[in-house]
Design brief:
The protein has about 120 residues and is mainly alpha-helical. A hairpin with a 2-residue loop joins strand 1 and strand 2. The chain binds heme C. The site of heme C (HEC) has 23 residues, from helix 1, helix 2, helix 3 and helix 4.
Length: about 120
């Protein structure tokens, strides 16, 4: 029997096109604006990383889907540790594994600082 290339568990049912769009956004470093990450400037490339997270977590770090956690206002060290845990597989999650694989430690620190600094709901 043929096995499908991607299998989605019921808890991980975000449409593939959302993941694909996010990965494309992460790959394309074409944003013109810079944003502030906890006092530091997010570089042009980093800004497009935030855009890659936005389809699921919201550009303002507030998610619209109950399956997706809000990032805005969470502790920066916590967010950073979760990103590392996704990348290492210690926190297993298909989409976040794909996303975190594209990120360096420095990217994770900057993204964590950026989302931590946004106002929570
Ligand atoms: C395709 C949708 C999707 C994209 C794109 C995405 N995420 Fe996620 N993210 C999720 C889901 C779903 C979870 C919840 C995982 C779970 O249930 O364990 C999550 C969880 C997280 C968490 C853990 C939050 C917590 O409260 O424990 C962090 C941190 C995170 N994402 C950061 C990011 C960053 C940074 C990006 C952009 C580089 C990103 N995510 C892109 C879907 C996505």
């Amino acid at each position: 029997m043929m096995r499908p290339m991607f299998t989605w568990s019921p808890r991980q049912n975000l449409p593939f096109r959302v993941v694909a769009a996010a990965l494309l956004a992460l790959a394309a470093c074409a944003a013109a604006r810079a944003e502030i990450a906890g006092g530091r400037e997010l570089t042009v490339g980093k800004h497009s990383m935030v855009e890659a997270c936005a389809p699921c977590h919201g550009a303002d770090g507030l998610a619209h889907d109950a399956e997706v956690p809000n990032l805005a206002g969470q502790n920066a060290a916590y967010l950073y540790n979760q990103l590392r845990a996704f990348r290492s597989g210690r926190r297993p999650h298909k989409e976040m594994l794909y996303m975190s694989r594209q990120l360096s430690d420095e990217d994770m620190r900057d993204l964590a600082a950026y989302f931590a600094h946004l106002p929570p709901r």
